[in-house]
Amino acid sequence: MKAMKNWKQLLGGLLVLVTIGAFLYTWRTHPELLRQLKDVRMSYLLLVGVLYGVMIGLLVLIYDTTLRLCGNRLGLREQTLLTMYSSIVNFFGPLQSGPGVRTVYLKKRHKVSVKKYAAATLLYYLLFAGFSGLFLLSGIRPLWQAALLCLVLLAVGAAGTWLARGKLQKYEFVRDYSRPLIVRLAILTLAQVVLVSLIYFTELHAIGAQVSIGQTAVYTGAANFSLFVSLTPGALGIREVFLLFSSQLHHISSGTIISANLIDRGVYVAFLGVLFLTVLSLHAQDRLKLRSDSAD
């Protein structure tokens, strides 16, 4: 297990180096991209930063819902601090480690069942993948066909849940109070995917790319799926590869993809910097008692 983890970290490091090298090569061979970035208006960058702030608020609601599915809940302040902290760790930590941080904290501080929380988190990921797939399919098939396929998959999932309700009782997902929570989680997850699409739409237009909402939806679906195989901080290099290989679906050029992703990376790192300062100012480590946990 340790050897596998080291191998993944080594591969992730190599991918980061290859990605940086590819960016430098692209800048050198396409000087117009650098001019594009210099012409980006500050208002676009600020808007992207604000949208990422909205994303944090949305994640607070999503994580609160997954926790309620386990029969637990945190206060708003604690949930917000934990979301901010795990978002920072998720980007800079190895192998998208934010969910692990939340799981360990919730088990140690609030005795939340690891199995229940893992099952609730898996449900969220399935919804995220489903809506991302719907966005991606909208570029292959008419939107109504993609929506119909999504409904069929949801119906199959609901039928499977009903048939396995006896075994799922231990996860509390088929209890009476959980049904509106699942609907709430689905709505919040869809809102998250739409918000991600709006962020990408803003970034693409910031560099002057004339892309449609439909193109951006496909672009979003492809980018979202890169998160499931992320071996690098922030899926650096992985997301770009997914977007480049799916260019036949969204018809956005490689130069535009690279420029838009540079904006996204830059703004998000700056946003996480602000988030980090906010966490420090609120003494999040003391409030969440992470130091005492690690000492145990």
Can you describe what's shown?
The chain has one domain (43-295). It is mostly helical. Helices cover 80% and strands 0% of the residues. It has helices at residues 2-29, 31-38, 42-69, 76-92, 98-110, 114-137, 143-163, 165-168, 178-206, 213-225, 238-245, 247-250, 254-281, 284-288, 290-295.
End-to-end Cα distance: 23 Å
Approximately how much beta-strand content do the residues carry?
under 5%
The helix content, as a percent range, equals over 70%
Radius of gyration: 20 Å
Number of helical runs? Answer: 15
How many beta-strand elements? 0
Mean pLDDT reading = 77
Unreliable stretches (pLDDT < 50, length at least 5) are 1-5
The SSE string, one letter per element, is: HHHHHHHHHHHHHHH
- The overall number of domains is 1
Instruction: State the major sheet.
Output: none
Q: What is the structural class?
A: mainly alpha
Shape estimate: globular
Compile the SSE list and pairings:
Elements: H1 2-29, H2 31-38, H3 42-69, H4 76-92, H5 98-110, H6 114-137, H7 143-163, H8 165-168, H9 178-206, H10 213-225, H11 238-245, H12 247-250, H13 254-281, H14 284-288, H15 290-295
Task: Please outline what is shown here.
This protein has 296 residues and is mainly α. It contains 15 helices and no strands. The two termini are 23 Å apart.
Keywords:
about 80% helix; about 300 residues; globular; 15 helices; mainly alpha
